[in-house]
Design a protein that fits this description.
mainly alpha; AhpD-like; 64% helix; 0% strand; globular
Length: 151
């Protein structure tokens, strides 16, 4: 395994980490369950190969009530019985938003409509911001080879 290239960029720019954490705090108060947000964070981080965020997302999901079955199987959520319809909708949206360039219609109507069935506009906003912040952290950690467990 290669070593870290440099410290996390958000830690090097004054106020950047605090701004990201403030946004994370605002998201947490918007009405989406912390477990759903953590599972979404975990899934996006798995897709992006971000070790620190996968480790942190798994721990966060467990802290917020996700069982080991959910945490262990989030990458295969479609093939397992351990996720609610709401969680499935959030995970589908997470995958589409994280993989924007993988298809011409980045977030297909059926994915959006399913999420909108389970979340109101404020909750959708929180979920989208959660996915965006997760992807931001992933894009800071992965290229600089941040290591899990070194927070």
């Amino acid at each position: 395994m290669s070593t870290e290239r440099m410290p996390n960029p958000a830690a090097l720019i004054p106020g950047a980490m605090e701004a990201l954490m403030a946004l994370t705090g605002a998201i947490a108060g918007a009405g989406v369950s912390e477990r759903v947000l953590a599972l979404s964070h975990l899934r996006a981080s798995q897709i992006n190969g971000c070790g620190p965020c996968v480790a942190g997302g798994a721990a966060q999901a467990r802290r917020h009530g996700a069982g080991d079955n959910q945490v262990d199987a989030v990458a295969a959520w479609r093939e397992t019985p351990w996720f609610s319809d709401e969680e499935r909708a959030a995970l589908a949206l997470t995958e589409s938003v994280t993989r924007l360039a993988d298809r011409p219609d980045a977030v297909p109507d059926h994915v959006w409509d399913l999420a909108a069935k389970h979340f109101d506009h404020k909750e959708l906003a929180a979920l989208l911001l959660n996915i965006a912040v997760t992807n931001a952290f992933n894009r800071l950690n992965a290229p600089t080879r941040q290591q899990a467990g070194q927070w």
